[in-house]
Write a structure and sequence with these properties.
Length: about 160
């Protein structure tokens, strides 16, 4: 609830804004929020005994950057902007399928990494690395915008 409520409030206003100013900020903010959130979770895990439970709330700040809802809205809006009406249903279905598959694979891989390692550092580190990679790919790619859309759908 702490993450979902600010995300929903954020998405109500930023959706209309992105229709006029582009989807770039709408697509990159959730990754920056996730990177910050995972860094805070790593810090909380490291100092578990020393920090109070209130410090865990810092990981919830991802809701202020839109979270998964904002990314989802941005990607669906972007796909709707760049595809024809004829191809739109198929592309949105593929995007939804890739997200669902990535969610399942991420959960399976995360549990296996935890079992092999015995701690969460590697899981949060991989998540931060993927977020940084996506941000780098988005800001520094010279390719076609569809390449970034596919990259985000596969990674996130």
């Amino acid at each position: 609830m702490i993450v979902a409520l600010p995300s929903a409030f954020f998405c109500v206003f930023v959706g209309k804004w992105s229709d006029y100013h582009g989807r770039k900020l709408l697509l990159i903010l959730p990754f920056l929020g996730n990177i910050f959130s995972y860094l805070m979770y790593m810090l909380n895990y490291y100092f578990f005994e020393e920090l109070s439970s209130g410090w865990l709330l810092l990981g919830s700040l991802v809701g202020l950057t839109g979270g998964y809802q904002c990314l989802n809205m941005g990607l669906y809006g972007y796909v709707s902007d760049v595809t024809s009406a004829r191809d739109r249903t198929m592309r949105l279905s593929v995007l939804n399928g890739v997200f669902s598959l990535a969610y399942v694979c991420g959960n399976v891989m995360g549990s296996r990494i935890y079992e092999a390692n015995g701690n969460y550092y590697l899981i949060f580190g991989i998540s931060c690395g993927i977020g940084t990679l996506v941000r780098k790919q988005y800001f520094f790619s010279k390719g076609h915008p569809h390449n970034f859309q596919l990259f985000v759908a596969i990674i996130y």
